[in-house]
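User: Hey, my collaborator sent me this sequence without any context and asked if I could get a structure. I don't really work with proteins. Can you help?
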Amino acid sequence: MIDQEVVKKQFDIKGKVAIVTGATGNLGESVSWGFAYAGAKIMLTGRNEEKLKTIHEEMQSKGFECAYTVGNPVNEEDVEKVVAETIRKFGKIDILLTAAGMNNPKPILEQSTGEWQDIMDANVKGTWLYCKKVGEVMKNQGEGGKVILVSSTRGKSGMKGYTAYSPSKAAIDLMAKSLACEWGEYGINVNAIGPTVFRSDLTEWMFHDETARTKFLTRIPIGRLGEPEDYIGVCTFLASSASDFITGTTIYVDGGYLAG
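Assistant: No problem. I've predicted the 3D structure and written it out in structure-token form, which is a compact way to encode the shape of the chain:
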């Protein structure tokens, strides 16, 4: 018979320490709030110091235990600084969510090598660096950990103008699989989430463009585009012991976009 207390604790992340990269973006900020409400201690990081400070102050006003460190995820020294500051502030790291990333859609014949590289760096290199630095901490702690990478449905399907973005997200899917194989013996779970179009600064126009919105909605059985809040539940699940036997997979939070 399953013990009731065991079931209750499966989804409990109270007291866990989480680093959230891209915490100033819509998805990163929403999940940071979700983690905080669930009782986790949050290290917010990103490049926008003003917004980081605002989120930090709002969280503190609600009594949440949090901190912020400004840093560029593609700069190894910045990543090391964020990791070191998290350890200094909270003493450990239990959860990593890599929500930092970018896109700049262009046909390949119009996109410069530099623009392509910027996307690959932001989406792949930044994720790799955080996994490397945080993974070392988790391994040495000897208590396992939860790593959640942000992929996309575009890692599974192509689109005009996405010859940088789609391959970058496919790389995230395979990074999750590869790290799951490397770190399983240490009790570190590595998974990814694959959003479809959700509301953000980059996609807000789509929510107001009837033609573009209708085009996407014809592919989404749920009948709406995503909201940042849609990703709180799955990330909390992947951060908790309820997902202890899940690793190396990408969970598509897409309203059924890839089902059709």
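In plain terms: The mean pLDDT is 94. You can pass these tokens on to your collaborator as they are.
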